[in-house]
Inverse folding.
């Protein structure tokens, strides 16, 4: 018999039988019970090397019993099972000191692996934290894909490990980052988010590290950077794949040395922040293209976490839809619900915009339709409309450059919400337009700079300076 005695508690006799057989075949001694009272008696008498218990027991909730177990036997590993497969269940299990959490149904091989790992690890008192459970769940979904995310998040709550969240746009990367902060040990500190794609390239370093008065034109006073704002808390670096190389180098230095200097400053400033990064791009491809530092990637990718697109967890669509309907009802819009056919139609949709697209659809439905019960025909109509409108707007051959720029600037301003973009917008926009304009002229003239200058109506020396300043590659035609 392998060293290790397992105590199993579950009020379902069939589950106890399956666990007894699987653990016995693995070489463990097993004792099982259908109530918490017997389990507590065994534990308090010093029996068992590991506990496997369901959360909901007929006489006591396992979460209420866990603190007593950890008090009398702090080194006893407890694995919690539950059919209440939510993020908050996983978080509570971690908070109460459970070694691991398994959502039902689970794979027996995975359970055996967890048991073996728990019994082989050095025994030490696990970290725990107090605090009341939040009333609402930050994440919604009971699919297998989301269960695995909940388990990983629960394990990460009491650590400061750097996390890299990857996933398509609209999958909820910032929600996950906020959950890591709000339920982690840094929750009393600030959560500071910065979107790399929304900040001009030449201002990213100032945004991250702050700047001193007079550091550059327009720096009329000292400015605090995001690192300083997030001190003691969490810094969320969204769209990290859009960070320019110069800023990547400085960020790497901060991660290596734990200190930074402001733009224009000389005194190193110690930093204590948890870094959570996110991207909707494949950073390994960017590394191959020379657009992202490989050493920075490995510094950020300590714990990789992939958020699945909504089409990979279609079974979560009904729960998400109900969640959004309740949300918009609390905001003052009329109460609505979906009939069975409407739910099935939503589950079949591909959701290119992921959870964000579903939320927007729910808001439209509540605002535009007087019916309390929404049918598949209504859903079909709205989905068809949302799919065709962007294509018509983007592919319109009659759209002028002015209209295109206006549409782009509208989207750009919307990224800042109630705030305004950083100063210097006029010159940044002109620079953004200048590079593709010169590139198009050079392509049209097959790299002939004299003809390109004439086409653009600028001096040839001016064009050469622009090409050099903007680092535009000129490919001349081969005759």
């Amino acid at each position: 018999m392998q060293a290790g005695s397992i105590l199993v508690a579950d009020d379902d006799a069939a589950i106890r039988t399956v666990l007894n057989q699987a653990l016995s075949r693995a070489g463990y001694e097993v004792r099982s019970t259908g109530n918490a009272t017997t389990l507590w008696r065994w534990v308090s008498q010093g029996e068992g090397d590991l506990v496997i218990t369901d959360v909901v027991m007929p006489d006591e909730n396992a979460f209420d019993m866990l603190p007593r177990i950890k008090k009398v036997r702090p080194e006893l590993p407890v694995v919690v099972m539950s059919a209440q497969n939510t993020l908050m269940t996983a978080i509570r299990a971690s908070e109460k000191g459970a070694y691991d959490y398994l959502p039902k149904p689970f794979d027996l091989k995975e359970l055996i692996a967890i048991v073996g790992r728990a019994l082989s690890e050095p025994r030490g008192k696990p970290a725990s934290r107090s605090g009341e459970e939040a009333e609402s769940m930050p994440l919604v979904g009971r699919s297998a894909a989301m269960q695995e995310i909940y388990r990983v998040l629960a394990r990460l709550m009491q650590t400061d490990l750097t996390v890299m969240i990857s996933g398509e746009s609209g999958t909820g990367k910032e929600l996950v980052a906020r959950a890591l902060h709000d339920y982690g040990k840094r929750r009393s500190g600030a959560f500071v988010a910065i979107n790399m794609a929304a900040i001009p390239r030449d201002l990213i370093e100032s945004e991250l590290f702050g700047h001193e008065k007079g550091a550059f034109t327009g720096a009329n006073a000292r400015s605090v950077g995001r690192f300083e704002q997030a001190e003691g808390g969490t810094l969320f670096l969204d769209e990290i794949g859009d960070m320019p190389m110069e800023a990547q180098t400085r960020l790497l230095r901060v991660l290596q040395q734990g200190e930074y200097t402001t733009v224009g400053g000389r005194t190193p400033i110690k930093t204590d922040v948890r870094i959570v990064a996110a991207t909707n791009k494949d950073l390994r491809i960017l590394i191959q293209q020379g657009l992202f530092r490989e050493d920075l990637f490995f510094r950020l990718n300590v714990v990789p976490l992939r958020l699945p697109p909504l089409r990979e967890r279609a079974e979560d669509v009904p729960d998400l839809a109900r969640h959004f309907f309740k949300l918009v009802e609390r905001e003052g819009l009329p109460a609505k619900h979906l009939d069975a056919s409407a739910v099935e139609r939503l589950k079949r949709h591909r959701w290119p915009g992921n959870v964000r697209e579903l939320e927007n659809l729910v808001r439209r439905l509540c605002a535009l339709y007087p019916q309390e019960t929404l049918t598949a025909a209504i859903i079909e109509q709205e989905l068809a409309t949302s799919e065709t409108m962007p294509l018509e707007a983007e592919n319109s051959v009659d759209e002028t450059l002015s209209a295109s720029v206006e549409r782009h600037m509208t989207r750009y301003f919307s990224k800042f919400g109630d705030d305004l973009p950083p100063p210097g917008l006029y010159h940044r926009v002109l620079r953004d337009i200048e590079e593709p304009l010169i590139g198009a002229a050079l392509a049209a003239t097959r790299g002939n700079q004299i003809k390109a200058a004439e086409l653009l109506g600028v001096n040839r020396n001016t064009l050469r300076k622009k090409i050099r300043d903007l680092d535009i590659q000129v490919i001349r035609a081969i005759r």
